[in-house]
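Hi L.,

You mentioned the student needs an example of a multi-chain input paired with its predicted structure. This one should do, with 947 residues in total across all chains.
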Amino acid sequence: MPTVSMTVNGKSVSAEVEPRTLLVQYLRESLGMTGTHVGCDTSQCGACVVHVNGESLKSCTMLAAQAEGADVTTIEGLADGDVLHPMQEAFRENHGLQCGFCTPGMVMSALDLVQKNPDPSEQEVREWLEGNLCRCTGYHNIVKSILAGAQALRG
Amino acid sequence: MTGTGIGASVKRVEDQRFLTGNGNYTDDINRPGQSHAWILRSPHAHATITSVDISKAEKADGVIAIFTGADMAADGVGGLPCGWHIHNKDGSPMLEPGHPPLAHEKVRHVGDQVAIVIAATHDAARDAAELIEVDYGVLPAVINMDAALAGGTLVHDDVPNNRCFDWEIGDKNAVEAAFAAADHVVSIDLVNNRLIPNAMEPRAAISEFDRSSGQYTLHTTTQNPHVIRLLMGAFVLQIPEHKLRIVAPDVGGGFGSKIFHYAEEAILTWAAAKVHQPIKWTAERSESFATDAHGRDHETHADLALDKSGKFLGLRVATKANVGAYLSTFGSSVPTYLYATLLAGVYTTPAIYAEVQTVFTNTVPVDAYRGAGRPECTYLLERLVTKAARQVGIDPVALRKMNMIQPDQYPYQTPVALMYDCGDSPATFESALKASDYAGFGARRAAAEKSGKLRGIGISTYVEACGIAPSAVAGALGARAGLYESAQVRVHPTGSVTVYTGTHSHGQGHETTFAQLVSESFGIPIDQIEISHGDTDQVQFGMGTYGSRSLAVGGPAILNACNKVIDKAKKIAAHIMEADVSDIEFADGKFTVAGTDKEMAFAEISLAAYVPHNYPIEEIEPGLDENAFYDPLNFSFPGGAHICEVEIDPETGDTEIISFTAVDDVGRVVNPMIVEGQVHGGLAQGVGQAMLEGCVYDDAGQLLTGSYMDYTMPRADNLPNFSVATQSVMGASNPLEVKGVGEVGAIGSPPAVINAILDALAPLGVDDISMPATSLKVWQAIQESSVRQAAE
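Structure written out for the whole complex:
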């Protein structure tokens, strides 16, 4: 089996995997980083969104081997110890999560939105979330959280 | 007060772990020496299994074992049981055909389990499954309920006409008399569309068997671990409770779909003892679509009798409900006691009669999904009442108001078994009318018209029954279990507290809300309180979370256990402070002697209970750890009013929700932030049902909506910001005065949306549209009406 190496949350990692292994499987199964979730098998739900070389990406749409040498950030890489990243804090403050399953993907996706568009409108947030499904919140508080998170990041 | 008690919008305790990727969902768990399972499923909706040849698959790389239905049958494994017994009109029992965990001799829906492949890796198990050769004798499938009732093709050979039961409730003669005396009769035919629940976490399980102790452990994505232990242990695998541990760790949403005892739980548990190593299985989303119990799926004809003034005289309802291929755990109760007992709604209709036929088809079993019966009932009533207003020529607000139960009529005995304990529907209705600026709608419609848009407004008022359930009442109606709840409140020596509850949180925020109850009761900060749930080896007993029962039934159990702790602590305080126990007062976390300045903190008493050097040992035992079981006196009855306003582009059918206003009476609110979030989520599922979601099978029984590319889940840009408020009459049937909030959004909202769409289309002569009212369907309705108008 080939060895795949990359940087995840600032650490160099390496694991032997079958060629068909997806990036999300590499993270969850080879590295034991289970914060990134799998909610579907058609790349629709967005629970597995991570950042690869600074861009948000559904980690079920990429083979681990394609991420060879890449710089990957997952939900586990955001907080500073117990201190939440401002976007995570905005989700907590605004009740932007319930069961928590879609949350890692929502937060990672939201961060890519605000790096591309630091001051999004509510409609822009809603349209950006096209690729992220949530069944608990009705998105109401997720949208509110992202707007608050964007504001916090603007300072 | 610590600021974390009842009524405070305390930020959620559980969020830190979920936000940092440290949740602990079943698929996140791995056990030493674990193997992986793949379930081979039927590609046919209906077929005999002539043979299953596993010889090639067995030899594949990494395969540990393969089992089929024949293996389980040979082992005497039982069928999956149904938890609610219903009788036919003639008193005979419903028909309960067998439901083997692995299909034996016959498969009855696409996705039915045929074999389990256990291998060293997930991929090896999946690859090997493709080498299994199943010889199917394909049979015609029966999907449509009318076709099923006509007989011919039988899903179960021992169920004539595929009819599970033919049930009735209410006074048929009184209803006939009401119709004979009526000035107006309004009739409607409705389909309540079949839905696929789609909790974002797919189902998963890990089974283990410890040979040295004979102990089984199953981690599973369930809403009710003790119920699974009872059903699987007692009915399917004959494992006594003390040898069977069920753990439901973090669960990523349920909405009803994770109540039921699923075949995979039994298959994995049984197989773990065969292969002597842990077995892990996680559903792919495609499997979730094809095997999670679906929701709704009713066809109903109803007639409403009114007098000249518009007063409701009688309601007659005939419903066919699809139960799918097998009876799921609560499949029989949803279209009966959770549905037809609510047919009075918020109205004083004096005579009601309903008959319900349940029908087996070659589809996935249908069971409780958020609201479970009450959304079907509310949709029927609020569509019918809106149609009546139009037909009789009375304003829909006025017609509702003149028929509503008034606040001084509670407790209100309905003609369909339930007695509403308290409520004030006119008040929530009035508030919703005001909050939605109903009075100003005419001007908004006129403005929309000028820009070429069709604008409509729709009303829904509702009452529902939750806090499931008073055991004696449920038992009399056919429930095969009690529906109380239990709690253990363990105060530790230094004053921190662990609460063990038999309910289960899968998004509802119990770790916060329940801690608020304890914070209020003991006057200690919330960070001193841990809520433990989900492990049958830790929690004494419980019936789990569904039917908006956790706070209404589980909450009083916690409160009662807290009160037992306080009673005992007062005795300890009286002894130490040398006072009479009747003089001990407890407030804000301090025990004081009335009329003196003597006081002891909560933690001082707890320490004394565990270090009993100066202690009334002849009177009470050491320790501070109390249990309580709570069985409610009645259901609780949340209610409210939902008003939806839509704008339709007549050129495209594109329908936008301009505003959605919900005013709900949920009784006492413990955490307003969480309550609002629960309403938002319910509304999204209700709007989803009304506008987007619909499960479709083709005539051969293939599931056409089997992925997120085919089944329309509500996305962020399909939904508006919701205007949500609570306006409560305090609950009368439990000491916390709570009612329940988990389902109200999904119950009240679908008819508000459809009534709004029909109001918008009314000028075109469109008087009916079915759910989901997609843009395509709206456009088609407009086209057809235009064609008709042109022809006239």
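You could point out the following to them. The mean pLDDT of chain B is 97. The radius of gyration of chain B is 28 Å.

Best wishes,
N.
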